[in-house]
Fold each of these.
Amino acid sequence: MVGTIEKVGSEANTQKIGSKVGVAWLYSSCGSCEYCLSGRENLCQNKKFTGFSKNGGYSEYIIADNRFIFNLPVGLKDEEIAPLLCSGAIGYRSFKLAQASPGSTIAMFGFGGSAHLTLQLAKKLGHKVIIVSRNEEHLKLASQLGADFTFSPKNGEVYENLKDKDIESAIIFAPSSIPIMNALKVIKPGGRVVVAGIHIDGEIKIDYDSQLFHEKMLLSVESYTREDMLEYLRLATNLGIKPVYSDIKLEDVNSALTELKKSEVMGVKVIKF
């Protein structure tokens, strides 16, 4: 969310009324557990999430934790910044965990709100990017945003079409177990598969010899840290990363969620009050 501070609590002495700030998915963490103290607050067992454990952005006014709000980059519209605070940050965390070598090839499975921002990031940083999606319109958008190769599983077996693409790492944005198993097959020895989703449908069945041997790694992503967010906002500003978006009114949310379920959203939808 992007909004303006209307009131400030007695202990929120770093913020000023009238400042425009961003509020993201990670609402707060305890600040004192082993994870918080080691820079891994995203794994805190007492963390809270905006819109899940605390009221979120389907409202004109919210209460936010002073420690977990962000000063905004200049030169971007509010509608361009809001997606960076969720879709963008999760994609950035996934990209970091992939630990892709400079100039290497990254495969991304699924192409929605997070992937279309992560593609831009990877390309700006000099990587080759392959996008795999069943949605032909999404693949067209991926090509427009600079993807080096796009492929739909409707057009053939994923492994046979990607096995010679020199893929070092993969990020799974699609909420399905099938892309995870395909990605483990196509990455190079020593490569990483990072799963960006909160939930995955289906059972993951791994054949040790063909999918996990040769020191391949499978990791999941849980939110992000404030450090991740600050890094990403700087990168997005400096590299010119912007979402493809359309803005909607609050009363249009249900129809937008239906479009999302049907994979009909191009980029992201932004609620504008």
Note: The mean pLDDT is 94.
Amino acid sequence: MIVTITGIVALYIFMLAAFTGYEIIAKVPVILHTPLMSGSNFVHGIVLVGAMVALGNATTTLEKVIGFVGVFMAAGNAAGGYVVTERMLEMFKSSGNKPKRGGH
């Protein structure tokens, strides 16, 4: 049995996912944001794999362009998430642990 999703159903799923995601993130305490970012980076990796699969199955030029944009944006999102997580973790390190710069 093949199930196809119509435009209205896809829009409904997108809106429901966006609302649910917003509600979940809005209620997360500040102390949990770093672990949550690390977990979301994992999800971004899955999105990247999905975008690559969609690009690999693209047949028309429009599908290929949309797939390429999806892969590009997903890769940027995943890489940016790791950069942000690293910067947030740097904030928790004590000042005595930072390497000295300039050879002083």
Note: Residues 29-97 form one domain.
Amino acid sequence: MNKFKKIQAYRIGPLLFFVDAFISLPILRRMKRRTTTSMTLEYHGDREQIEKDIRQGAFFMTNHRDICMDSAWLTYLLCFRYRTHPYIGIGNNLFGKWWIEHVVRILRAFVVIRDGNFREQIENAKLLSEYIHYQRKRGKSIWLAQREGRAKDGNDVTQPGVLKMLTIDSKNFLESIKELNICPVSISYEYDPCDYLKAREMQLKRDNPDWKKSREDDIESMSVGMKGRKGKVVYRLTTSINPEIDKAIAANPELLNMSKNEQIQFVCNLIDQHIHAAYEMYERGEKFDQYIEGQLAKINIPNKDEDFLREKLYEMYDNQVKNYEKAKGL
């Protein structure tokens, strides 16, 4: 539809898409071999129900490990197992290198526009929400991260602003959310190749609260995330949150009378519970300590605070364990 042209980065015909896929999928396979020891697509919950959700079209919402590869690998895995190719939301701040255009094409992307004045941001959010609901009504699958930007400290929590955007013009928040059929996906990396970049960013921000990432910083993170060592990678699909919303309403009808912000937080908590409980837990020991020291050595900034940086590197991995244990009631 012409009115969505502004946010449709993926505007090529079927033939060119096939050519891009023919070229790009073998590249993804080679990257998988070079950067991971294994990569699996697994299930947390009723596999039969999960596959039913996928067949009828799903809104895949994941934690955010890597700027580009989160969606690329999920697309790769879903394409081979289910012939499902979700539409992918990508921030316009990432468009800066020629090769990104090809990544965007194979990801079947739409653009999340993040700049502009307040009025423009509201209009862009409305357009994006309408586009996503339009695609879902057509039975198309969507991918979007649970937050804008990666969780620097590894504490993956859904941002309420994402759900507000998705339902910005809705009169009934819970019904609008159910129309999307949100199926959370948990992404686990044994090693996050961008961890030292995130730690570096945290010290720079600590030392200068006005410090901001440049577009070049985003491009560097994309490149390191694509090429860096990840170890064992696990994508774990979970069931739709819709039955849990219905069950909660049946148990407590007052949920329908709560404020929109309270309902949003309720849904955020549901998504987080799915993602955290489906994490893969990795063995940590002396080898991992050596890995942390190696990542620490890569950081080259003025007034390098090794104690702070080391603490932040460990924190990125420890927070995932804490969230997993909380979700599991351990």
Note: Residues 306-328 form the longest helix (23 residues).
